[in-house]
Amino acid sequence: MKPLTFIIIFLNTLIVFSQTEKNETILIANNTWSKESLKMPLSFAPGIEYEGIEDIRFAEGWSKKDRPDFWTYVFVWHIKGIQKQTIENLEQHLKLYFDGLMLSANNDEEKIQGASVLFIENPNKPSSFIGKIKTYDRFHTKEVISLNCTVDAHYCETSNRSTIVFRLSLKPQKDKVWQKLQEVTVRDGICKN
Question: How far apart are CA 72 and CA 183, in angstroms?
Fold first, then answer.
């Protein structure tokens, strides 16, 4: 085989395999939810040192202030290793996440306060947390918003991976929008990957 042919085949294989992990579907939702997939560590929050993917689903009205599902979305971190979640690391990681997402590079001039994150363990469900995130909304309102959040962590010893599901909304957890959030699920067989 000629060296140039080998290099082309090798590079194509490398591109295909690197895109496969980045575009792997972890969350299942109906077609009204838009989706995005990011490779971890995240470029906007490199302090979260997990390796894997972030799979995101946005409710249909997530970006429209007049909609009941404004700022309603689900994301999952499907990451290497058994990464046991605690209140402390969730608060630290989500502060890094939202500060990286919402604060601009010239924040010293803008003087926008960073995110405030608070979690408690869900007493009714192991490896589950309930929290609130107060953060600046750089994308839609240019105001501070308060997101309600639940976190469910799943650990797979056989594949040495952790799957951490985050559900967020401005609405309180008794609102019907949370039924929509619960309909977004982790695909079957995730523990085998």
Answer: 13
Share of the chain above pLDDT 90, in %: 77
Mean per-residue pLDDT over the chain, rounded: 86
What is the pTM (predicted TM-score) of this model?
0.86
Cα dihedral sign, 164-165-170-171: negative
Gap between the Cα atoms of 167 and 182, Å rounded: 8
1 or 62: which carries more pLDDT confidence?
62
At 17 the pLDDT is 35
CB-based contacts of 186: which residues, under 8 Å, 6+ apart?
26, 27, 28, 76, 154, 163, 165
Question: Would you put residue 52 in left (φ > 0), alpha (ψ -120 to 50) or beta?
Answer: left
CA dist., res. 120 & res. 174, Å (int): 17
pLDDT for residue 160: 94
Q: How many domains does the chain have?
A: 1
Closest CA to 71 of 60, 82, 83, 87: 60
Q: Is 164 helix (H, G, I), strand (E, B) or coil?
A: strand
Structural domain harbouring 170? 3-192
Instruction: Residue count of the chain, please give it.
Output: 193
